[in-house]
Write a structure and sequence with these properties.
With 258 residues, this protein is of the alpha/beta class. It is built from seven helices and six strands, in the order βααβαβαβααββα. Helix 1 crosses helix 2 and helix 3 (86-109) packs parallel to helix 4 (125-138). The chain starts with 26 loop residues before the first strand and ends in a 15-residue tail after the last helix. It binds 3-methylbut-3-enyl trihydrogen diphosphate (2 copies) and magnesium ion.
Length: 258
Amino acid sequence: MAGLFGKKKTGAPGAGENSLPERLPRHVAIIMDGNGRWAEKRRLPRAAGHQAGTEALREIIRFSSDIGIGYLTIYAFSTENWSRPQDEVGALMALLLRYFRSEIDELCEKNVRIVILGDVDGLPTAQREAVLNAMERSKDNTGLTLSIALNYGGRQEILRAAKKLCERALAGEDPAAFTMADLESGLYTAGMPDVDLVIRTSGEERLSNLLPWQTVYSELVFDPTLWPDFTKERYLEDLRAYAGRDRRFGGRNGAAGK
Ligand code: IPE
Ligand code: IPE
Ligand code: MG
């Protein structure tokens, strides 16, 4: 795509350094990790790292929307993150509120639909109201679906879906007839495609309870960049790495059918 970075390409279309790969993932999930280390390197409080991380996030959401990614999931706060010191949890919650208040207008202008994955009821009142308001305001938008994993735990999500099936069985349905689609209908991601690509920044190589059901065949890219330093150029490199992968899904031929 010409002019992606505001400068004209001179080479053949698609051949430039900044060109988009031909095969883009439909659903990208990003584990935005490394805010704390970014701040520690600068002798700043960890909260400053989280704040800097929101700048990177703004750029990546915009870029995802501009290049036509259908679904972007970002891991903002895990169910395990409550175990951090109270001041850090407080700073993250305050940042969350500021983030929703300052970004919602632009996100709506860009036709972004916001979905929350996780236990919204477990959030403090002001945060809960802000995220519910963002979901309500953006629910009819038809562009990028931005899923924010917030107070999210993958095992908790599967347990919750299993409980919904139990309720249906107790109401008289035959459990022997339940399908994977039935279980999926009880996940926070109901109706969304599986994750094609997981990017985790900061060099850590694990999923930390993110979307275990939806990532069984995801391609994983571990990017050494600390999240606040992540840019659309890095993102593009990770998208290129994805485009070069041969996705077999247990079969013998690549997804491209070669
Ligand atoms: C990711 O950055 C943000 C959240 C988990 C909320 P970290 O705070 O985990 O940063 P590191 O891993 O300590 O560098
Ligand atoms: C994962 O990062 C959660 C988020 C990015 C929100 P963590 O920093 O919490 O993960 P671990 O503890 O290193 O596995
Ligand atoms: Mg971390």
